[in-house]
Amino acid sequence: MTATEDDCANSGPGEQPSNNGNLKVIRTESGFEEAIASESNGSSQVKSGANRLSYSDKTILAPMVRVGTLPMRLLALQFGADIVYTEELIDWKLLRSFRRVNDVLGTIDFVDETDGTIVFRTCSREREQVVLQMGTSDPQRALKAAKLVENDVAGIDINMGCPKEFSVKGGMGVALMADIEKAKNVLETLVSGLRCPVTCKVRVLPDVDRTVAVCQTLAMTGISAIGVHGRTRDERPQHSNRNHYIKAVANALSIPVIANGGSKEIESFEDIKKFKNETGCSSVMIARAAEWNVSIFRKEGRLPLDDVIKKYLVLSVDYDNNGSNTKYCVQNMLRELQETPRGKLFLEAQTLEQICAIWGLGDYCRARQLEFKAAGLLGRREICPQVLRQESNDSESPAKKLKLEGNCTSNIVTMKVAYLRSLFPSDNDLPKSRLLAWSRKQKLGMPSYKTIQEGKLFQSVLTLDGKQYTSSMWEKNKRWAEQGAALVCLCSVGQVDLSTLKADGSVL
Question: Cellular component per GO (predicted)?
Fold first, then answer.
């Protein structure tokens, strides 16, 4: 399975920074004004039996690694999808997060308390239609994680189809189909412990009768539906989807069966209907065809790719989506178009603003980011251990501080500078390399670095010629923290222009 398929775990690149603002902003472009509905009291309405999610006769956005984040889910709903699944979220990652009401964006954020990244972001627009897919191998841990989010989603799905080594070694994904008793225990525990519907998603086994028998066993746990991908754990997209296996499951079960794996034959909304008829299923779940052009859900027909990308970028801006995650999604839309002149320009882009500029949305992106900042949004550059400790109510340990030479902080040169790796194509271009060459030429000696770590965040102070320099932005590894400090020093001594740093996105 490639990284673009469904059923794969969220490994991190799609994560986003947190914020703790308490002001509201008005949507001006994306068309999701209703998503701003106030949630400032932190409460969520518990769903009654009358408005529980139904899985019958639906078209569904499949769970896809790094693709199923909030902007893509909202766009799928805008184009006509009935239900949208998140990317797979691992139970222990959810348990490591705390829930925050984000009034600036009109969202609910689950924030990793160790580094401030967004594990899961959702909003009122999708609340009755979003299903969180979870990776787990332990019933009680799964229940504890699901209880954190059950009032913010329409349903919980357990991934029993991912064949990736990470999942299998952890006893998750297809490993659960090899341990049916554990799989039953996970589902029964969730069904009895949650107020929202529970489902699971599986892959077919090599034998059709065995596939039917396993699905019948899982259906007896009380789940509301089951998704079936028509390939085995060892088969990949180039292999034919076993539609007749899915049909056999659909004929044998009384609960809704969701057909998945037909993207090779799906190029229009009419093809979704054909796939549904061939498999005899209640509903259809679309992965790669939606990843390539999510307007596949439009009954009126697909839109031109440029129109889809622009709509996706507006949503990415309006919901402060991580630049690398946005780039990943657009890259998978472009596919072979990455070889065009514009595609190559896109591949060089690093920040969300740079990506937006290629489609004429650069000014809109920057204006919104400044608006968010003025409204109190804490972006990636503002995240620090003290903020996370305060928000997660973790006061066990005091904040660490770097010991500066002479115990004096007044002489330290501080700037909020982000180190963006793509701006430095060769090792000689790196800030540390440039600073070392300059300091030797000036006969100032060797720069020295002192770095501290708290949680998963790092900050470094550089000392050169008796002066100290640091970026107030905490980075996610030691090397980047040192490069940031070097960039501050280069700017301070006139080797890098501040306007250049602003133009390339290093300084907002």
Answer: cytoplasm
Between CA 321 and CA 313 the distance in angstroms is 9
pLDDT digits over 149-159, tens only?
A: 999 999 999 99
Greater confidence, 264 or 409? 264
Q: Of the residues 8, 123, 162, 384, which is catalytic?
A: 162
pLDDT at position 44, please? 44
Alpha helices, H only, 124-164: 139-149
pLDDT at 133 exceeding the cut of 60:
yes
Type of residue at 432: K
The CA distance from 205 to 209, in Å, is 9
CA distance 312 to 333: 11
Q: Which among 218, 173, 225, 172 is positioned nearest to 199, based on CA atoms? A: 225
Q: Which residues contact 449 (CB under 8 A, 6 or more apart)?
A: 460, 461, 462, 463, 482, 485
pLDDT value at position 39?
40
Spatial separation of the C-alpha atoms in residues 319 and 104, rounded to whole Å: 9
Buried b (16+ CB within 10 A) or exposed e, 312-349: bbbbbbbbbbbbbbbbbbbbbbbeeeeeeeebeebeeb
Closest CA to 104 of 318, 334, 361, 321: 318
Give the strands of the sheet with 457-464, arranged side by side.
Answer: 412-415, 467-471, 457-464, 448-454
CA-CA-CA-CA torsion sign (198, 204, 208, 213): negative
Buried b (16+ CB within 10 A) or exposed e, 261-297: bbbeebeebebbeebbebbbbbbbbbbbbbbbbbbbb
Query: Terminus-to-terminus CA distance in the chain, angstroms?
Result: 38
3-state secondary structure 180-233: HHHHHHHHHHHHHHCCCCEEEEEECCCCHHHHHHHHHHHHCCCCCEEEEECCCC
Average pLDDT over residues 228-235: 95
Contact call for residues 129 and 49 (beta carbons, < 8 A) = no
For 398-440, the DSSP string reads: PPP----GGG--TTEEEE-----GGG--SGGGSHHHHHHHHHH
Alpha-carbon distances of 446 from 199, 238, 436, 441, rounded to whole Å: 59, 55, 7, 11
Q: Give residue-wise pLDDT tens across range 72-121.
A: 999 999 999 999 999 999 999 999 999 999 999 999 999 988 888 899 99
Tokens matching residue 211: 């596939």
DSSP state of 500: H
Nearest Cα neighbor of 329 from 311, 345, 342 is 311
Are the C-beta atoms of 215 and 204 separated by less than 8 Å? no
Clarify whether 162 is annotated catalytic: yes
Give the HSE-up count for residue 70: Cα atoms under 13 Å, Cβ half-sphere: 31
**What amino acid occupies position 383?**
I
Classify 495 as helix, strand or coil.
coil
Q: In terms of Cα–Cα distance, which of 100, 70, 102 is closest to 87?
A: 70
pLDDT at residue 13 above 50?
A: no
